[in-house]
Design brief:
The complex is a heterodimer of chains A (about 300) and B (about 450). Chain A is of the alpha/beta class and about 300 residues long. Helix content of chain A is about 45%, strand content about 10%. In chain A, the strands form 2 sheets. In chain A, strands 2-1-3-4 form a 4-stranded parallel sheet, with helices on one face. Chain A is globular. Classes of the chains: A alpha/beta (about 300), B mainly beta (about 450).
Chain lengths: ~300, ~450
């Protein structure tokens, strides 16, 4: 083999690769909502990529080569944490050869650490399903959690990129003002929903329920992470006939068949809420994510709907 | 509450003024005084009543401020509580993550596995015992050593002819903070050549290893050594690596070159096509020196001195609608292995070493389809192309007989959760002397910490 030729090709590749200009702070977000939030706080000073889109179940992502390449160049990693990405993120972190975003570094942000987690199991036993020891990781369905994480994102960006600290502070202040006004608006719009009973496909919505005062009647998964079975759906049918709920809720990446079957049997409407940015065509940013969520909830079970 | 306070104050001032004016006047003074006194009493009682209402209103306000709908700006209701520090001091706070893989099977064959061997292959291949067996169970320990190193130990318990043996499959350290996207791995580990070589048996898609690996690399090449990997800063995934190993395990042997008998180079690239497809491809080279590598039986010794070179090309394509693996996905995977053996074979019944320069190759292609959460099916075809080293080896284990070895596998598996899998596999094995139909029922269960899987 001509080793000189191989060496030349390798050197050329290295030069080509390192010559790429990198503009701004590279943010690797595990989920679309954190990519959107990094965009709100970072503005033009950050470049964001999201490892997943709204149509993918973030529990089950392949540690794809493209994601390793993404991790490799990241300055800041933002993930929900609490075990949501345990099936794939550890591989990315080990194969990405990037010390800046390892746990414990300023470049590693596990968003759920900064909010009050619900569903923290009292007993850890996998017979209870695929439990998250640190609590339910789907924190983005409560906009107050997003406000709390926004502050941490701003603080980390200032730490990583002190040159633009002023811009990050300004962006955060502007976001907080607009966001808290939006939260007030959503809370007023959603006031009629308080106390309504809902059925969840997976416990992806406990933070939303907690925020809006929705009451969980049941879940389609008998145990977290175990696909809805015919036996369990039949049990649910009996339960729902005895004490009906107002809506069956699922995420866009979850199989619609079980909830549609229940709707057919019970007449209780079902809906796919956006869950994250991009979950429906009109949920294009964090604001429209909640606009659409509350609009769908009101349409399906507002005062007129029930 | 402010609307209450103003008239109250006005009333109080008016009352005081009226009282002051009432001192020192003429005859009507007494009448006026009486009138004023009545007025004063009236005002005082009204002021008292108003003050009581004000107090009540203020208390109500204070109560409301303490409890209700939190002020939006502080989000106190949903903020993380301060972390409780509970240091027990038991000494096990930093225990490594521990996981156990339980892997067992029931096997049934048409032909006895005792008579199975692949003609032309010095290592002979081999079939697992029939009936019930626990196969291979693994104990895995992983943890960060400190901010520089990550450590991993995999111990395997295997059964062979009712004898249980424990082996240290892997025991290595990875660096965590080398600059320029490089990682150094050292200790005992599976080489990163090819695609399947560093995959542990519990992550195989079939019960058994693909034929080219089991035939040419004795299942997978692992040894004591050191590895350097570099990841290119490109959007396209590109990883290059080099390894040096002791050279103690097949196809090396005898720790050649003062215990640096095996060298390898590998490169992997990969990327996405749209959101539904992703792929990886790689090229690898392994050079292994063998010093008196025994691979025959006791009464029919067969030893090799020389060099084995192996080239591997691998390609994997994964598809899932919208990249959502949970519901449905399809994986196509194929590899081609080419091997050259150059050296001398020492056989029983032949005087002196016989020189050999033989090329062999092996390949497999497989398709795995998950059609709904938990349920998968897969097909695999694998085969070998073994070179005849020459007439001097006629009648020895090195002489390939008949057709090229070929095997067809069909499997179904069900995963009730991420941690359990039950698999049924049918195989039509045309790699040995006689064609063999094989049926295997396998379980793979994971308890404790379960590491994330690679692509």
């Amino acid at each position: 083999m001509n080793y000189q030729a191989v060496l030349k090709i390798c050197c050329t590749l290295v030069l080509l690769a390192t010559a790429r200009a990198q503009a701004g702070v590279q943010v690797f977000a595990c989920e679309p909502e954190w990519a959107a939030l990094a965009g709100e706080i970072g503005g033009a000073n950050v470049e964001t990529i999201s490892a997943t889109n709204a149509l993918q179940d973030p529990h089950y992502i392949q540690a794809r080569p493209s994601l390793i390449a993404g991790i490799r160049k990241a300055d800041l990693l933002i993930c929900s944490g609490s075990g949501l990405e345990d099936g794939w993120l550890p591989v990315l972190l080990r194969k990405g050869n990037n010390p800046k975003i390892q746990p414990g570094q300023p470049g590693h942000l596990a968003a759920s650490q900064y909010v009050k987690r619900l569903d923290v199991p009292a007993v850890l036993d996998r017979a209870q399903g695929d439990l998250h020891a640190q609590g339910n990781p789907h924190i983005q369905t409560d906009p107050r959690n997003i406000a709390l994480v926004a502050r941490v994102v701003a603080q980390r960006l200032q730490q990583i990129d002190p040159g633009n600290a002023e811009a990050y502070r300004g962006n955060l202040a502007a976001f907080e003002e607009k966001w808290s006004a939006a939260i007030n608006r959503w809370q007023q719009q959603a006031a009629p929903l308080r106390g309504k009973r809902v059925v969840l496909h997976h416990r992806s919505w406990v933070y939303l329920d907690n925020w809006l005062g929705l009451e969980e009647e049941a879940t389609l998964e008998a145990k977290p992470g175990v696909p809805p079975s015919a036996a369990h759906l039949n049990e649910l049918l009996t339960q729902l006939k005895a004490s009906p709920a107002a809506l069956i809720i699922r995420a866009p990446y979850q199989d619609p068949q079980p909830s549609e079957w229940l709707t057919k049997q019970t007449g209780i409407p079902n809906a796919a809420l956006p869950f994250t940015v991009g979950g429906t065509p009109d949920a294009t940013d964090l604001y429209s994510l909640f606009d659409v969520t509350i609009r769908i909830l009101l349409e399906k079970m507002g005062p007129a709907g029930e | 509450m402010k609307y209450l306070r103003l008239p109250l104050r006005a009333a109080a001032v008016l009352a005081t003024l009226l009282a002051a004016h009432g001192v020192g006047a003429d005859e009507s003074i007494d009448a006026l005084r009486a009138e004023l006194g009545a007025l004063k009493a009236q005002y005082e009682s009204r002021i008292e009543a108003l003050e009581q209402r004000l107090d009540a209103a203020e208390q109500q306000l204070a109560r409301e401020q303490q409890q209700p709908a939190e002020p939006v700006e502080s989000y106190a209701a949903v903020a993380a509580p301060p972390a409780a520090s509970s240091y027990a001091g038991a000494g096990n706070e930093f225990n490594p993550a521990m996981g156990v893989i339980l892997n067992g099977a029931y096997r049934s064959y048409d032909k006895s596995p005792e008579d199975y061997y692949i003609p032309g292959l010095p290592s002979g291949g081999g079939l697992a015992d029939e009936g019930f067996s626990i196969g291979e169970s693994e104990f895995i320990f992983t943890a960060n050593v400190d901010d520089w190193f990550y450590g991993r130990v995999t111990m395997a318990v295997e059964q062979e002819d009712n004898d249980f043996s424990t082996s240290l499959e892997e025991a290595f350290l990875d660096t965590l903070s080398l600059p320029a996207s490089t990682t150094l791995r050292f200790g005992r580990f599976y080489s990163s050549i090819g695609y399947l070589n560093d995959k542990h048996p519990h992550s195989w898609d079939f019960v058994d290893q693909a034929l080219p690996y089991s035939a040419l690399l004795d299942t997978q090449y692992g040894d004591d050594g050191i590895q350097l990997r570099w990841l290119a800063p490109t959007d396209l995934y590109l990883e290059l690596g080099a390894e040096v190993f002791r050279g103690a395990s097949y196809p090396a042997a005898g720790d050649a070159h003062s215990g640096k008998g095996t060298q390898s180079l590998f490169g992997h690239i990969g990327g996405d096509v749209g959101i539904s497809n992703s792929w990886t491809a790689g090229l690898s080279w392994l050079n292994a020196d063998a010093r008196h590598r025994d691979s025959g039986s006791e009464d029919d010794p067969l030893a090799f001195d020389g060099t084995t070179q192996i080239y591997i090309a691998d390609f994997v394509w994964k598809w899932a609608p919208n990249g959502n693996n949970r519901e449905r996905n399809l994986i196509f995977q194929t590899e081609y292995l080419w091997r050259n053996e150059n050296g001398d074979y020492l056989l029983s019944g032949i005087d002196g070493p016989e020189p050999v320069d033989a090329d062999s190759s092996g390949w497999y292609a497989q398709l795995i389809y998950q059609w709904q959460p938990g349920w998968r099916m897969g097909v695999r075809v694998d085969g070998l192309n073994l070179d005849n080293p020459g007439p001097q080896f006629a009648g020895s284990a090195l002489e390939p007989l008949g057709d090229d070895p070929l095997r067809y596998s069909l499997m179904f598996d069900y995963s009730h959760s991420e941690f359990s899998r039950i698999r049924l596999q049918f195989e039509r094995d045309e790699s040995g002397l006689e064609n063999n139909n094989q049926l295997t029922l396998q379980y793979i269960m994971s308890i404790g910490a379960h590491g994330a899987h690679e692509f």
